[in-house]
Amino acid sequence: MSRIAVTGGVGYVGRELVRQLIQAEPDASIHVIDNLESGERRLESMADDRFTLHRVDIRDRAAVRDAMAVIRPDVIYHLAAVHFIPFCEADPGDAVSRNVAGTANLLDACPPGTQFVLASTAAVYAPEDRAHVEDSSVIAPMDVYGWTKLHAEQFVRYYHDAAKVNGVIVRLFNVVGSGETNPHLAPAIIEQLDGGAATVKLGNLHPFRDYLDVNDAAEGFRRIAAAGGRGRDVIVCNLGTGRKHAVRDMVELIAEAAGRELVIEQEPSRVRAVDRPTLWASTDRLQELTGWRPQITLAQSMAKAWATRKDDRLA
Fold this sequence. Notes:
Radius of gyration: 19 Å
Structural class: alpha/beta
CATH topology of the largest domain: Rossmann fold
Strand content: 15-25%
Strand order of the largest sheet: 3-2-1-4-5-6-11
Shape: globular
CATH architecture of the largest domain: 3-Layer(aba) Sandwich
Number of domains: 2
Largest sheet: 7 strands, parallel
Oligomer: single chain
Distance between the termini: 32 Å
């Protein structure tokens, strides 16, 4: 019987990943490591009789070691992190302690041979006008969040090269859909629209992004983990759709789902000082490794996000 751990398993992608693992791995022993910072209510929508919850903050080295000694995972999906860029910019020390030190604590406590699947980010790439490719795109983060994840990747490489873990690095692009836990673009639009606004006030209007539905994100993690991480080299794989959309596309799709017409207005207080114009994934390696590509369109994802908006607020 395999033993699987998911850090941040009550969070946005983590909760969906746990749900899928329960369905896909009925004989597995599934463990969730989470400090429940995103809210205990989120547990109410999870089949908590099918997994064991360990209420642990990954910054607590002793607590992490105790949990790892109990779980003894064969596979660990490491999703616990602070990833909302304004939060990271406002408190870089906290971002480093969670995203870097927390990762190092887990790696150090893992049993030898654990497959360690890190949720990294496309933010490790330097800005460029083409799709980002794992081995040829320049690595040069432009914000605190990206730097913390790059350092986390380096720790995975270090422990992999020391034959302590089998490393898999998943560079995740922009996740959207139901159950968001941070005030990213789609939740900001939905909140304003649901409040009766006819004008949506947003920050940066120019960026193009690769938007991946949360269900596809979770499935992608599972498929990449199944395909790699047992060889000589760390597996590094983008997880995105290979398609880019503008901010205006997102507004129009949500407005269509709501049956409303909207005007977009840029609000200076929402504008990020640091933002890249374009971010989207080359999915060649994803398809080579897994034979799979994301299935849910942005229109489908936004329609579901609008339809479940009240449930999301309760969660």
